[in-house]
Amino acid sequence: xxxxxxxxxxxxxxxxxxxxxxxxxxxxxxxxxxxxxxxxxxxxxxxxxxxxxxxxxxxxxxxxxxxxxxxxxxxxxxxxxxxxxxxxxxxxxxxxxxxxxxxxxxxxxxxxxxxxxxxxxxxxxxxxxxxxxxxxxxxxxxxxxxxxxxxxxxxxxxxxxxxxxxxxxxxxxxx
Length: 175
Prior knowledge:
By secondary structure, the protein is α/β, with parallel strands linked by helices.
């Protein structure tokens, strides 16, 4: 049995995604690529970013190029109230929330990174923000009476130290 070569087809030819999605992200790089693919597949997307101007510019660009509904909003994933308001906004604008993508994260790029101030904020964004976002998305998906998809994006940086002068402590034995 042979498998058809679909590499020359657009995402819209391969997938029809009539869904409402919310991405917590930086509106550039990986986040922008994810929004583009969701929009190309037919999803209405709300971009939540702490940099509202960047979210606005990304939403305008992708709305034009993909012909889809892409809306911006300011989202601070370190603030639970901001996450809740953004989830409510997605339901208000689109009527449902079918896909939630936790993509916002911080990676300290300096050896001067020291607890408790910076580490608390990193934990608020990288851990608590992902937890609260997933919880709030699930609540809305359950309340709507249908399933949904929650995607948590992470980095290999959690497993490898890449800063000069830092060493990875050995992992404890699993035996």
